[in-house]
Amino acid sequence: MNVQNVQHVASRPSWDCTAGCGPWPCTTAQRDLRAQYVGDRIGLGWHVGRLVADAIEDLGPTVVADMWDRLVTWIRPRRRPAERGPSDA
């Protein structure tokens, strides 16, 4: 198989990367999703929110925190130290 044709998608119901990268979304999947939703952070948020609901449906409610960390936290923009406010210290 040509490595360039490998799809980095979630294997359900485990939610691991189909390319063997471990927990999905792997770094490549994150990059691909960012590219797919470039300029549309709200759209990306909606899409990822639906994925969280799907993952909870597949894996049960005990995985909510883990799936939130895996599927949502990476879409937040990273703030530079100079951008932090007093409540961020």
Describe this structure in words.
The protein is mainly alpha-helical. It has a domain at 27-76. The protein contains three helices and two strands, in the order E-E-H-H-H. Strands 1-2 form a two-stranded antiparallel ribbon. A hairpin with a 4-residue loop joins strand 1 (10-11) and strand 2. 8% of the residues are buried. The model has no long low-confidence stretch (mean pLDDT 85).
Which features would summarize this protein structure in a list?
single chain, 89 residues, mainly alpha, two-stranded antiparallel sheet, 3 helices, 2 strands
Outline the secondary-structure elements.
Layout: E1 10-11, E2 16-17, H1 27-36, H2 41-59, H3 64-71
Antiparallel strand pairs: 1-2
Helix pairs in contact: 2-3
Instruction: Output the strand order for the largest sheet.
Output: 1-2
Number of helices: 3
* Helix-strand pattern: EEHHH
What level of helicity do the residues show? 40-55%
The number of strands is 2
Low-confidence stretches: none
Shape assignment: globular
Radius of gyration, rounded?
Answer: 15 Å
Q: Return the structural class.
A: mainly alpha
Largest sheet: 2 strands, antiparallel
Oligomer: single chain
Head-to-tail CA distance between termini: 48 Å
β-strand percent reads under 5%
Calculate the mean pLDDT score and round it: 85
Write a concise synopsis of the structure shown:
With 89 residues, this protein is mainly alpha-helical.
